[in-house]
Amino acid sequence: MMRKLLFVVLNLIGLNVLFGAEPTIAPSNLAVGTIQCNKAVISWTSGNGGWRLVVVKEAAAVSATPTDGTSYTAFANFMAGDDIGSGNFACWNNINNNFTLTGLKPNTTYYVAVFEHDGAAIPNYLTSSYATTSFKTQNLILDFDFNYTDSCDKTNLVTFTNKSSATFSGISYTWLFQDATSGTGTNVTHTYNKGGNFLVTIIASPALGCTDNYTTTKAVFIIPRPVSKPIEKNNKLSQCLIGNQFKFADNTTLANIPRCAYTRTWYFTPSDSATIPSPTKTFDNAGVYQIQYKAETYYDNVRTGCTDTASLWVRVIPDPSSGIYINDSIQCFATNSFVFDNKYPGLSSFFWDLGDGTTSANKSISHKYTAAGNYPIIHEAQSPEGCKSRDTIMVYVKGNNNATFTGVPAVVCENGPPILLNPTLSGGVFSASSGSFNGTTYSPGKAGNHFIKYLIKDSFCPDSLITPIKISALPKFSLGKDTVVCDGSTADLIVVAPGTMVWEDGSSANPRTIAVAGTYWAEVNNNGCKWRDTIFIKEGLTPQVTLPNDTLICKGSLLQLTASWPGATTTWSNGTVGNTIYVASSGTYTVNVTNACGTATDQVVVTLADGFCDVFIPDAFTPNFDGRNDTFEIIGRGITPTLFHIYNRWGEKIFDNADAQSFKWPGFYKGDLCPEGFYTFIYRYEQKVGDRVRRNTINGNIYLMR
Q1: What pLDDT, in 10s, does the model give residues 17-40?
Q2: Number of helices followed by number of strands (H, E) in the chain
Q3: Element (H, E) at 93
Q4: Alpha-carbon distance 443 to 463, whole Å?
Q5: Domain 148-222 belongs to what topology?
């Protein structure tokens, strides 16, 4: 029994030596810091063991614990250490309380368990209590897109849109455009200056262990532009006008990009072009010409709009003789002085033949011709470029014009009769400082010292002549307005003007007394310039006027008033101008009769009486056939009846003058004598006074007695 007990005790002592003591305090404060895409820092507070075993599992909690007596190989790179079972990997087995876990996947959750053990060769683990935690790694996915509308090199603008996503911030982006340039920024734009396919890369910093770059698999395709280079094959950019022929060639280049080619167009003038590689061109006129060249890239035989232009300047040298200058090709013989020159710069030789036997090898020459006529000028010249030419032009030496004229008289009177002038050479134009011309006929104007000019208008040899002319003033005077000598008086006529005066009767008395009516004129002659004036003299009497005495007129009547005198004007106080007025109302009427000899005045007072006193209307009549008052009749002075109607007391018309053909009513109606009583009448009449007619209507009652 003692032997067995001793064996057990010895066994227990042996185990303690192999296993050591199991820790009693587990790790605490397990934390994960500085988490990146592929690593994280794990730390904790140690328990009372000597060492710690850290077990990590992906996507699920640690599902196994270490076995006492088993020593596990651990590596900080996930999955490199021992698998305790079902993906539980030993990642750390050490005395320290922190380490960096590596080899992780981005955007993945990991579970951590820390076990305390004694650190012996045959470890004794505390598995009843241990620290656990979990964490998720960072994630970064790089992506972008791009777009552009212009795909030609140099003018394109590609917009890159960043579509990356990350679980952390503070990322800076660098773009590699694969054209040896780069850019920075979240979203960027870029212009490619050459054509080709470009795979663009985006780089993120920091990436926190995630993949830090992404290169698109879709290339940015930029269409190359041609590099235009038109040339003249023989480098003859300056040629003489005669025989010029420019030979052009196309040295344009295009980047060697599959499926790209180009076409070209040569523009010589706005209406002349060519598309072949090596055209030729001849110009008809001298000058400097800009040859426009345009090349365009085609992709898969389709126009792209990616063009490049260039220009080439060529010079067509004018014919050296075309620079001829003549100061005036048409000149008058008397003053001709020709200057011949060639204005073309830099010529090397000259020759002139002036058409009259004169020649010269000078650049310019002055010459005067000794006779009128046409002369051919022959000129030859050569330029330093070797261009030669010959031209012939004509000059004209024109005969002189003659602007003399005759016909100006010694004496010209103001506003006198027309004068015909005679020019030596017709076709000119007359003008004058006073008066007017109709062709060659001159009508003198106002007096004074003036001139007449005759101008022969000629573009080359005009001529003119100015002749002074003195226009004498007319001896103007006036005998005055036509007048009247009144009541046997006389009038004196006086003429005041220089010169010799004579009257219509041949006399020359001045003044002259006139007592008899008639037409008289006087004429004055002053050195051939005459003036005449005429006056008409009448004889007259001072007017007289007499109106009737003050008078009375009846109601409805007119009074004619007349006042007149031969050759006089009659004016009435009511504003009427004329010999006669008609008065129908009361008032004082005044008349003035006026002529050249004076005015006569008179007046009349007119009173208007009540009632129609021009007619007699009876009150009653007795149609009893006794010969007295048998009919009803209205009687007046100087009146003409126009209507007479009789009405009974019921308003019935019982008499009408138109039916009865009479203005007398016998008292009967329809053959029967009317009853005694009052009857109403309407009576209208006209009264003529002078050339006036006055119309009146009278209403009243008549009593019929039986």
Answers
A1: 444 689 999 999 999 999 999 999
A2: 2, 65
A3: strand 88-94
A4: 23
A5: Immunoglobulin-like (2.60.40)
